[in-house]
Design goal:
The complex is a heterodimer. Chain A is mainly alpha-helical. Chain A is 67% helix and 1% strand. Chain A has one domain (10-446, 454-553, 602-621): Cytochrome c oxidase-like, subunit I domain (Cytochrome C Oxidase, Chain A, Up-down Bundle), CATH 1.20.210. The longest helix of chain A has 35 residues, at 62-96. Chain A starts with 9 loop residues before the first helix and ends with a helix. Chain B is an alpha+beta fold. Among the domains of chain B are: 2-66 and 89-117, no CATH class; 258-348, Immunoglobulin-like, CATH 2.60.40.420. Chain B is 40% helix and 18% strand. Chain B contains eleven helices and twelve strands. Chain B has helices at residues 2-7, 11-22, 37-70, 89-117, 121-124, 203-208, 237-248, 258-270, 310-318, 320-323, 338-348, and strands at residues 131-138, 141-146, 151-154, 156-160, 164-171, 176-180, 184-189, 195-200, 212-217, 230-235, 301-302, 306-307. A five-stranded mixed sheet of chain B has the order 3-2-1-5-8. In chain B, helix 2 packs across helix 3 (37-70), helix 8 (258-270) packs across helix 11 and helix 9 crosses helix 11. The longest helix of chain B has 34 residues, at 37-70. Chain B is elongated, with a radius of gyration of 27 Å. Classes of the chains: A mainly alpha, B alpha+beta. At the A-B interface, helix 3, helix 5, helix 8, helix 9 and helix 10 of A face helix 3, helix 4, strand 7 and strand 9 of B. Chain A: The chain crosses the membrane at residues 27-48, 68-93, 105-128, 153-179, 191-218, 238-262, 274-295, 307-332, 344-364, 384-404, 416-441, 461-483, 554-572, 578-600. Chain A: It is an enzyme of class 7 (translocase).
C-alpha cells in the first residue's frame, strides 16, 4: 500500500525519513543536514573574521583558532557543499531524466547516512578533546605532530563520509546510464544531468586516492604505521600528492554541478534554449578530464623542480579555455532572450562576474613562477573563495530557490530572497576582494593574528565587515524558509512558468513515483517542446499500470551507525580498554546489517493503478 | 623580458596598474614593491597576467552589462517567446581561439621564468664563490647557517646586496615555508629533503626599505604559525664581509658588572643546554634545538616579533607561552625571580659581535 494518503504523527514522520529510500526525501535529508553544517561552517567563518578584525586580537586563542580554521574548511567542503550538491542532484536528476528513482535506492539511503554519521563523528571532536587543527589539507608532518585526537576524528570521519560520497557518485553514474526515459539520448539530457554525470565520474576516480591517503594516515596515527615518517623511510610529500590528486578534482566535483544549475536557470529565465548545448557538454567533459591533470599546481613551492612546475602550470592554464567557453555560452543564452530577474536568476547573473574574477585569478595562480608569491597567502584565500562562494555557494542558493517549489510544493518568498541575495552578494565581494591585496601585501594565510604596522589593518577590517553582511543574508534566508514553510501557498507543476525540463511537468512536490507513465522524450528541453505544441502534459511512453516501488528499510542507517560506533572505539583503543571491543562491536553491527541485506529477499511493493490515477487527479487539481 | 614587455601593446595598461599597485603595502613586506631580481621577475609576471585578466574581465563585463540591460523582460512582453538559437560555430571558435592565444602569451614567460628561478647550479659547484645560507626552520624560529664561513645565527638573516644569495632549505620538526615577500616568492622547508633557491636584494631598494625586510613562515605549522617571523638585514657586500669576520672572531667578553656576571651564571645553569652563545657551533643540527644567541643584542626583534628592548625580553623570559603559544621553550627552565630576570636580561643584552 502506498504512503500517499496516510496522515502521519511526528514519530511516524521521523521513522519514515530514517527508513526512506525515496530520492526526493533523501534530497530533503541532504538539504537539512548540509544546511545545518553550512550554518556551522559559517559560524566558524565568523569566528575567524572576528579574530582577524584588528591586529593582535585575543578574541580566541591561537590553538583554538587553528581548530576553527580547520573545521571551517573541512565542514564547508565535505559536510556542506558536497551534501548540498547531492541534495540538488537527488531532488532533480531522476525526474529530469524521466526515471521513477535512482538505480539503487538502498545505496542512496546508505550514502546519505554514511555522510551524516561521518559528519557528526567529525564534529564530536569539539567535545572529545579538541577538533583537528592541521588545516583541511592536514599535511602529514603537522598532522602527525598534532597532540590531540582531533586529526583522528578528521581521518575516520572523512573516511566514513567519503564512502557515502563514493557510493552516491556510483549510484548517479548507473542511474544516468541506465534509467533515462525512452528518447532521452545523452545529447538530450539537461545540462544539470550532464554535470551530475561528469561529477559522478570525477567522484569515482577522485575519492579512492583520498581513501588511500586517509588509511595511511590512520595507520600512522592509530596503529603504529610509518607511511609519513621520513626517519623511518616514509615521506610526507606523498600525502600532499594523494590529497591533491583528490583535492583538485574535488573543486570540479563541486563546481560542475554549480555550472549545471546555472545552465538550467539561464535557459529558464531567458526563455531560450541553452546556447551552444553541445559545446557546453564538451566543455564539461573536458574540464572534468583536465581536472585530474593539474593537482601539482597546489604544490608549486614544494620543490618538485622546474619541469614538473612548468608542465602543471601550462596544464592548469588550459582549463581556462573550456571554462571560458561556458561563460560566453551563458552570456549568449541571455542574448536575445527575455530575461526575468527572479531570485535564482539574480544569483546566476551575479555569478558571471564573480566567477570570472575567481577564474582569472586561477590562471594567475597557474603561472608557477608568480605563484611562488601567491601560494599560501591571502591571495589564494581570496581566489578559492571567489570560486567556491561565487561559483558553488551562489549556485546552491540559486538552486535552492529555483527547485524549492519542486521539493516542498511552496515558493520561497521572492522579496526576502532578493534581500538575501543583495546582502550576500555585497558581503561576499566586500569580504574577499580585498583579500587579494592583503595576500600581495605579504599576509600569509592561516594566521591567527597579525601584528600592527605591516599595512594590513584596513583590509582585514573591511573583510570582517563584509562577513557580517553575508551572515545577515543567511539569517534572512533562514527566516524566509520558516515563513514559507508556515505561510507559503501551494503551487502547481510549473511555478516559474518557463520550466523547460521534465521536473516541471510533474506536480510540486513530485508524487512518490514521479511519473504515472514514463514519458517519451522528443528532444532537448522535453517539457518546453510539449508546451510549445500547446500540450499540457508529456507524451507517455507506456500505458498506465501498477507501479513497482522499493520498500523502505532501516538497514542503511544501522550499517552507518555501526561504522560510527566502530570508529569511536578504534579512535580510543590506545587510551582505554573499552576501545578495541567497541571498535569490533561496531564493525559487527555493520556486518550483521549487511548480512541481513543479503539474505532478505526484498521485492518491493506495487502502487496499484487506481491509486495512481486518484493521486494524479488530486495533483492536477492542486 | 623587460624589452619584450616594453614593446608590448599592453604596456600602458601595465604601467597604469604598476602605479596603482605600488601604493599597496609596505616596502619591507609587500610583493608589490619588489626589492630584487627574483621579486622583479615575479612582479612582471603578475603585471602581465593581471593585464590580460583585466582585459578578459572588461570584455565579459561589457557583454554582460549589455545583455542584462538590453534583454530584460519588459512590460507587455510577458508572452513573447524569443527565438530558440542552437548556437554558433563561428562565435564558439572565436571564444576558444582567443583565450588560447592569451594563454600562450602568458605561458611562454611563465615557463621561462620557472626555469630561470630554478637555476641553482652556482651553489652546487665544487668551488663556489657565492653566498650560501642553510636555512633550518623550527617550531617558531629560524636558524641561518653560513657553511662557507662556519658561522650560525638565527632569527635575523644577514645578506649582502646586489648579488644572488643561495639557500638550502629544510625543516627540523614539521613543514614550514620560507618567504620574504619583498625579495621573492616562497619555498617550502620540508622534513624529507633539502630545497634550494636563490634571492636577490637590490642595494638601492634595500636602503629605501630601511635595510630590514620581513620574512614569514607561509605554511601552517602550529598555534604560533602566525608569529614565526624573521627579519632580513640586507647590507652592502663590504659590510657583510665585515660582519662575517666579526662573527668568526667573536669571543665571549668577561664582564665586570656583577649583575651581568650573575646573569651569565643563571644562563650557564638553565639555558646553555639549548642555546649556544658563540657563532661557531660544531654540534650537529639535532643538538641545536634552540636559537643561537651569539649576536642576540644586535637583533632587531625579541622572539622575532616584539620590539627589541629589555622590557620585552623580560616578558618573553617570564612567560614565553603568553607571547608564542605552543613554543618549545616554555617550562624547560625553572621559574625566574625578578632579580634573576633582571640579571639574565642584562647578560643577554651583552651578547653582541659589533
Amino acid at each position: 500500500m502506498s504512503t500517499l494518503a496516510r496522515k502521519q504523527g511526528v514519530g511516524a514522520v521521523i521513522w519514515d525519513y530514517l527508513t526512506t529510500v525515496d530520492h526526493k526525501k533523501i534530497a530533503i535529508l541532504y538539504l537539512i543536514a548540509g544546511g545545518f553544517f553550512f550554518l556551522l561552517g559559517g559560524l566558524e567563518a565568523m569566528i575567524i573574521r572576528i579574530q582577524l578584525a584588528v591586529p593582535n586580537n585575543d578574541f580566541i586563542s591561537a590553538g583554538f583558532y587553528n581548530e576553527v580554521l580547520t573545521m571551517h574548511g573541512t565542514t564547508m567542503i565535505f559536510l556542506a557543499a558536497m551534501p548540498l550538491v547531492f541534495a540538488m542532484m537527488n531532488a532533480v536528476v531522476p525526474i529530469q531524466i524521466g526515471a521513477r528513482d535512482v538505480a539503487f535506492p538502498f545505496l542512496n539511503s546508505l550514502g546519505f547516512w554514511l555522510f551524516f554519521f561521518g559528519g557528526v563523528f567529525l564534529n564530536l571532536s569539539w567535545f572529545l578533546g579538541g577538533a583537528p587543527d592541521a588545516g583541511w589539507t592536514s599535511y602529514a608532518s603537522l598532522s602527525l605532530a598534532s597532540p590531540t585526537h582531533g586529526i583522528d576524528f578528521y581521518v575516520l570521519g572523512l573516511q566514513i563520509s567519503g564512502l557515502g560520497t563514493l557510493i552516491g557518485g556510483i549510484n548517479f553514474l548507473v542511474t544516468i546510464i541506465n534509467m533515462r526515459a525512452p528518447g532521452m539520448t545523452y545529447m538530450r539530457m539537461p545540462m544539470f544531468t550532464w554535470a551530475t554525470f561528469v561529477t559522478s565520474a570525477l567522484i569515482l576516480f577522485a575519492f579512492p586516492p583520498l581513501t588511500v591517503a586517509l588509511i595511511f594516515m590512520m595507520m600512522d596515527r592509530l596503529f603504529g604505521g610509518n607511511f609519513f615518517d621520513p626517519a623511518l623511510g616514509g615521506n610526507t610529500i606523498i600525502w600532499e600528492h594523494l590529497f591533491w590528486i583528490f583535492g583538485h578534482p574535488e573543486v570540479y566535483i563541486l563546481v560542475l554541478p554549480a555550472f549545471g544549475i546555472f545552465s538550467e536557470i539561464f535557459a529558464t529565465f531567458s526563455r531560450k534554449r541553452l546556447f551552444g548545448y553541445s559545446s557546453m557538454v564538451f566543455a564539461t567533459v573536458l574540464i572534468g578530464f583536465l581536472g585530474f591533470m593539474v593537482w601539482a599546481h597546489h604544490m608549486f613551492t614544494v620543490g618538485l623542480g622546474p619541469i614538473a612546475n612548468a608542465i602543471f602550470a601550462v596544464a592548469t592554464m588550459a582549463i581556462a579555455v573550456p571554462t571560458g567557453i561556458k561563460i560566453f555560452n551563458w552570456l549568449l543564452t541571455m542574448w536575445g532572450g527575455s530575461i526575468r530577474f527572479t531570485t535564482p536568476m539574480m544569483y546566476a547573473v551575479a555569478f558571471i562576474p564573480s566567477f570570472v574574477i575567481g577564474g582569472v585569478t586561477g590562471v594567475m595562480n597557474a603561472a608557477a613562477a608568480a605563484d611562488y608569491q601567491y601560494h599560501d597567502s591571502y591571495f589564494v584565500v581570496a581566489h578559492f573563495h571567489y570560486v567556491i562562494v561565487g561559483g558553488v555557494v551562489f549556485a546552491l542558493l540559486a538552486g535552492a530557490h529555483y527547485w524549492w517549489p519542486k521539493m516542498f510544493g511552496k515558493m520561497l518568498d521572492e522579496k526576502l530572497g532578493k534581500v538575501t541575495f543583495w546582502l550576500f552578494f555585497i558581503g561576499f565581494h566586500l569580504t574577499f576582494f580585498i583579500q587579494h591585496f592583503l595576500g600581495l601585501m605579504g599576509m600569509p594565510r592561516r594566521v591567527f593574528t597579525f601584528l600592527p604596522g605591516q599595512g594590513l589593518e584596513t583590509g582585514n577590517l573591511i573583510s570582517t565587515i563584509g562577513a557580517f553582511f553575508m551572515a545577515a543574508g543567511t539569517i534572512v534566508l533562514l527566516a524566509n524558509v520558516v515563513i514559507t514553510t508556515v505561510k507559503g501557498k501551494r503551487v502547481g507543476n510549473d511555478p516559474w512558468e518557463d520550466g523547460r525540463t521534465l521536473e516541471w511537468a510533474v506536480s510540486s512536490p513530485a508524487p512518490e513515483y514521479n511519473f504515472a507513465q514514463t514519458p517519451l522524450v522528443r528532444g532537448l528541453d522535453a517539457y518546453w517542446i510539449e508546451k510549445m505544441e500547446g500540450k499540457k502534459g508529456l507524451t507517455p511512453a507506456e500505458p498506465l499500470g501498477d507501479i513497482h516501488m522499493p520498500n523502505p528499510t532501516i538497514l542503511p542507517f544501522v550499517m552507518s551507525l555501526g561504522l560510527f560506533i566502530s570508529a569511536l572505539g578504534f579512535l580510543f583503543h590506545n587510551d582505554y580498554g573499552w576501545g578495541l571491543p567497541v571498535g569490533i562491536i561496531g564493525l559487527l553491527i555493520t556486518l550483521v546489517a549487511m548480512f541481513f541485506r543479503s539474505i532478505i529477499d526484498d521485492h518491493g511493493f506495487h502502487i496499484p493503478k487506481e491509486e495512481v490515477m486518484e493521486a494524479e487527479k488530486k495533483g492536477a487539481g492542486a | 623580458m623587460k624589452k619584450w614587455l616594453r614593446n608590448w601593446r599592453l604596456v600602458s595598461l601595465i604601467s597604469a596598474m604598476a602605479l596603482l599597485l605600488a601604493g599597496c603595502g609596505k616596502p619591507f613586506l609587500s610583493t608589490l614593491q619588489p626589492a630584487g631580481e627574483v621579486a622583479d621577475m615575479q612582479y612582471d609576471l603578475m603585471l602581465l597576467s593581471t593585464a590580460i585578466m583585466v582585459i578578459v574581465i572588461a570584455v565579459v563585463t561589457i557583454i554582460f552589462l549589455y545583455v542584462v540591460t538590453r534583454f530584460r523582460r519588459r512590460k507587455g512582453e510577458e508572452n513573447k517567446i524569443p527565438k530558440q538559437v542552437e548556437g554558433s560555430h563561428t562565435l564558439e571558435i572565436i571564444w576558444t581561439v582567443i583565450p588560447i592565444i592569451l594563454l600562450i602569451i602568458l605561458a611562454v614567460p611563465t615557463v621561462l621564468y620557472t626555469f630561470k628561478l630554478a637555476d641553482v647550479k652556482p651553489m652546487n659547484k665544487k668551488e663556489r664563490d657565492v653566498v650560501v645560507v642553510n636555512v633550518r626552520a623550527n617550531l617558531y624560529w629560524w636558524e641561518f647557517e653560513y657553511p662557507d664561513y662556519g658561522i650560525i645565527t638565527s632569527q635575523d638573516l644577514v645578506v649582502p646586496t646586489d648579488e644572488r644569495v643561495y639557500f638550502n632549505l629544510k625543516a627540523s620538526d614539521v613543514k614550514h615555508s620560507f618567504w620574504i615577500p619583498a625579495a621573492g616568492g616562497k619555498m617550502d622547508t620540508n622534513t624529507d629533503n633539502t630545497n634550494q633557491f636563490f634571492l636577490t636584494f637590490d642595494e638601492k631598494r634595500a636602503e629605501e626599505a630601511g635595510r630590514l625586510f620581513y620574512g614569514k613562515c607561509a605554511e601552517l605549522c602550529g598555534p604560533s604559525h602566525a608569529l614565526m617571523d624573521f627579519k632580513v638585514k640586507a647590507i652592502p657586500r663590504a659590510e657583510f664581509d665585515q660582519w662575517v669576520e666579526k662573527m668568526k672572531n667573536a669571543k665571549p667578553v668577561a664582564s665586570t658588572d656583577p649583575v651581568v656576571q650573575r646573569g651569565e651564571e643563571i644562563f650557564n645553569k638553565s639555558c646553555i643546554g639549548c642555546h649556544a652563545v658563540t657563532p661557531i657551533d660544531g654540534r650537529p643540527e639535532q643538538a641545536r634545538i634552540a636559537p643561537n644567541l651569539a649576536d642576540f643584542a644586535d637583533r632587531s626583534r625579541i622572539a622575532g616579533i616584539l620590539e627589541h628592548n629589555e622590557e620585552n625580553l623580560k616578558a618573553w623570559l617570564k612567560d614565553p607561552e603568553k607571547i608564542k603559544p605552543g613554543n618549545k621553550m616554555t617550562d624547560t627552565y625553572p621559574a625566574l625571580s625578578d632579580e634573576e630576570l633582571e640579571a639574565l636580561t642584562k647578560y643577554l643584552m651583552t651578547l653582541s659581535v659589533e
